[in-house]
Amino acid sequence: AASSSSPPAVITCRAAVAWGPGQALVMEDVEVAPPGPLEIRVKVVSTSICRSDVTQWQSTAQPDLFPRIFGHEASGVVESVGEGVTEFQVGDHALTVFIGECMSCKHCVSGKSNMCQTLGLERKGVMHSDQTTRFSIGGKPVYHYCAVSSFSEYAVVHSGCAVKVSPTMPMDRICLLSCGASAGLGAAWNVADVSKGSSVVIFGLGTVGLSVAQGAKLRGASKIIGVDTNPDKQEKGKAFGVTDFINPAELNEPVQQVVKWLTDGGADYSFECVGDTGVVSTALQSCSDGWGLTVTLGVPKAKPEVSAHYGLLLSGRTLKGSLFGGWRPKSDIPLLVEKYANKEIQVDGLVTHDMPFSDINKALELMLQNRCLRCVIHIFH
């Protein structure tokens, strides 16, 4: 780690680099620049693979943003701090977050939103502050992902996109709170505000869907229906609060008809956690007239437009979107870490594989084959 007296220097480290859409990641020596003003450089300890990493890695929509380092769901130790950083010190443990909280823009001060106007979702493969990269190979830029890029031994992130955590927390588990687990819990608690005794249907029982189920269970929902084409998800779902399981592949009628039958006319809350805009319409049809609320959380791989019959809305249903479960990273994530520490929320059960950094391509393959929930990659042991 850099001492406080000498300015941070360029670090050369190992990173898993994607050279093109869907191409196997290659372990490369990359140069990581020192942190700029209000930035920190983090030694990545653990990173878990999120479905959106895989979706964007395979996407051909931004072919010019390669070579690129993916990864965003991570934990690490602050190695050095840039000018003006007062919140973090060298040696602090931190979670990286794919959206930030500047504390001063219109959205941050509203108390109603996590859509920070300064440190919002970064889509151009660069840092928020100066629109350049901190990674390079042979002097040529390597692009970031969500301004995090945790498939690397070291990464530079804006201090507003990181959350300080207690050094007693297990790095290889709390990394899930930097995206997937928090997104699901927040969708149930913040966005839908699930009420006691209510009925819930969840489409897609991956990490996010199971976390929605857990959130609904902790709120006292009486019926939590899980919908997934993978029969293995039935048992996993039970552990997170799912009371009824539907496999659409085994039905002779539309899913929404079965949900309506199970809930006496439609669920109070419906969650789309697949990343399929066609499922959004099904989820909307599965919730109740009058007050049914559908929350969409998935990132679609194709067809970004949502289509639904206007009558579904005219009859009183609501469709809402959710990014990171409505949580504000700085203000709210420490509370979730505390809940984890107090064993009030379950995270460990979402991890199905622990793998060394050298096996990252195997982990991506498991995600593509739907054979895992979260694979945690151990960058530094």
From TrEMBL:
It comes from the Eukaryota. One of its GO terms (molecular function) is zinc ion binding. Transmembrane segments: none annotated. InterPro entries: ADH-like_C (IPR013149), ADH-like_N (IPR013154), ADH_Zn_CS (IPR002328), GroES-like_sf (IPR011032), NAD(P)-bd_dom_sf (IPR036291). It is found in: Cytoplasm. The keyword Zinc applies. Keywords: Metal-binding, NAD, Oxidoreductase, Zinc. GO terms for biological process: formaldehyde catabolic process. Gene3D superfamilies: Medium-chain alcohol dehydrogenases, catalytic domain (3.90.180.10), NAD(P)-binding Rossmann-like Domain (3.40.50.720). It catalyses: a secondary alcohol + NAD(+) = a ketone + NADH + H(+); a primary alcohol + NAD(+) = an aldehyde + NADH + H(+). Its cofactor is Zn(2+). Its main location: cytoplasm. Residues 208-338 form the Alcohol dehydrogenase-like C-terminal domain. GO terms for cellular component: cytosol. Residues 37-165 form the Alcohol dehydrogenase-like N-terminal domain. Homodimer. Belongs to the zinc-containing alcohol dehydrogenase family. Class-III subfamily. This is Enoyl reductase (ER) domain-containing protein.
